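Exercise 7.
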Amino acid sequence: EIYQLPGIAETVDLAHIRHHYYRSHKTINPYGIISTGPAFDWDEPHGRDERFR
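Solution. The predicted structure, written as tokens, is:
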């Protein structure tokens, strides 16, 4: 839900975050394999306001 706040999405590069995570931790990923992963719609309503009343 933080991603959905005004001005946040414009400053986040999710591809960079994923690539940095998988490539910078050689002890847990020595070959630097980066999965394609599932596709998320980060703009989809999260519904927490309904879930936690």
